[in-house]
Design a protein that fits this description.
The protein is an alpha+beta fold. The protein is 24% helix and 23% strand. Among the domains are: 34 residues; 114 residues, Immunoglobulin-like (Sandwich); 62 residues, no CATH class; 104 residues, Immunoglobulin-like, CATH 2.60.40. Helix 6 runs parallel beside helix 7. The C terminus is likely disordered.
Amino acid sequence: MSVGNQLKWERKGVVLMKFERFLRGEQHQYITSMRPVLSKRALFSDTTGNFISPAEPAPYSEVTIRFRAKKNNLDRVFLVCQGERNLMFKVSSDSLFDYYEVKYQLDNEKITYYFEIQAGRARCYYDTRGVVKQTEAHYYFCIIPGFSTPDWAKGAVMYQIMVDRFCNGDPSNDVLTGEYQYIGDKSVRVEDWYRYPAQMDVRNFYGGDLQGVLDKMDYLQDLGIDVIYFNPLFVSPSNHGYDIQDYDNIDPHKGRIVSDEGDLLADWQTENRFATRYIDRVTNPKNLEASNQLFIELVEEAHRRGIRVIIDGVFNHCGSFNKWLDRERIYEGREGYEKGAFIDRDSPYHNFFMFHDENRFPYNTTYDGWWGHDTLPKLNYENSRQLYEYIMKIGAKWVSPPFNADGWRLDVAADLGRSPEFNHRFWRDFRRAVKNANPNAIILAEHYGDPSSWLQGDQWDTVMNYDAFMEPVTWFLTGMQKHSDDYRQDLLGNAESFWGAMGYHTACFATPSLFVAMNELSNHDHSRFLTRTNRKVGRMNTLGPQAANEGVNKAVMREAVLIQMTWPGAPTIYYGDEAGLCGFTDPDNRRTYPWGREDQELIAYHKAVIRMHKENEEFKTGSIKWMLSDYNMIGYARFTRNNHSAILINNNDYEVTKEVSVWELGIPREAEMTRLMLTDRNGFSTDPVTYPLRAGKVTVTLPPESGIVLQYRDPVREKNGDAEDSSGGWNGSLSGKLDGRKNFLHFR
């Protein structure tokens, strides 16, 4: 071959090589452009035991964080934690999904994180809202090392009892008419159990007591509750008990009276130092000891039945009757009691309170009152180490033998001292005192607003869940404010507002707090939920109590209860809600339990939905995924590895048919779901009806004002016993596990 030909062929070879490279590049570009579209619906992670292991990691331990995506759909996933990008590795797959993991070494500080997803040219992020274009710190996932809440409280069904209004089991301890004077008039014994509360109801007593609760323990057990939460039980002159007289003892009017000496106040007499009958009842050691013993017996009986007991702690203020102040002079001169701070400047309790005029003794009325109320003296913790330590001992006492309560609900807990810094310190010490006495006790606080600074693992376990449960559910289903003080047409049926509120406020909770949050529809401070369904704006003094019963909608009530029993947290029933009790806000919401006049159908519904909640673990500790958002309609799922439930709510007054995608819950595209519960205008049904899936979707026809729960259980895993591991995460049975990739690859 000539040199010219050789060069010719060499040039030709170069051209061919370049052409082949070009083709390969084009092919790569073509393949890249034609790759499957990023399936955002398949992306999922959270901080339940399904996606972090262990579910409640200890300080300085290693935690495994997981992320889920559609099979063969992603290029890379990063865990972005504390400013560092950690490459995650695909460790397993099933027929639908790939699972990515990274192992992260904790110290003793809270971590926050989100995920960065890459698929071809697509890039997005994932935080507690789901898939987003930009992250916000408020919505980052978080893990708090060492923060755990009692397992018994996760998803526990609680039952709130205001004792005076529940059941009168012992008439001999009833508060008597004229027994003492309180807030301008004498105490009243209400003879008619079914009488509506009066407008000024604080000194009207119906006679409910702990013996009555014991007498109804069969009813409570049959209802299916796990926990009794008592409004205050300590000695107090009011029927609600939030003005505590003696933190060391159960009120004999709720307990037992074995000594009953003395006289009622004369008609003309208003000074309680002459109320000798009352003084004997609430100061005689025999009565106090007998009442404390009855509480011990009640807790023992509850525990024997598998029911826990939580008591109410009011520590931001006490009552003017309190033995430390003794404004009523009922302890003055009595054996075993020191002089109260109201009476004597030299009282050992003087610095328990803040007096503005030290020259007014004896009988100094210039003390601070909580929100200005002189019947509710503000406790002065900052200036009294003795008081501070005393309340720590009280916190430990009632969760310790022989009393053995299972925890505290704390009244308006953030409104304690005179600065947030002090309050945080106080509750840290309170937590240590309570948890050292009973590590399995729960600390549950009443709080309005963002609770996150109090839920860092060193203070409260959780809160009464107003913002991330009661209010969004109430607005969506009724359009009513929780006191029945306002109606908002724009919020009624507004699914976007519902999900927005739920998402924002739920992000304030770490998962250990969320799973034990007290999810109420009603309580002693707000109108009854059933009354809110009539959409009447007003209160007892403006509309009259009978109006609270008119035009109520039990179908909407059942929708609310269905949400309550399937939402993350501890569903809490306010006594009588399950029996159809109505009422405007305080005091009308404190009607007596309607024994003999119960709505039996509503009770039966509560029993059925509570049983569903307790029999299916996904409703206690499962993940939650939002699925449906439409006018007057919401849908969401609760799921674990084996159990998958979809909850759909139609609050419209007409029938709706919806096709709902459920494959992203981990359900095979061709399968069946079984109906666990249907509630509508006609009642409810637990008959198991099957719904076929086609291409991963289920078609459901929802009647007016209805709710439905559909469930899929993996038959293979159930048969093989392939369940969740002890950490709450997924076991190692999935294919393709890469054991050697304990990585800490950081990309800044």
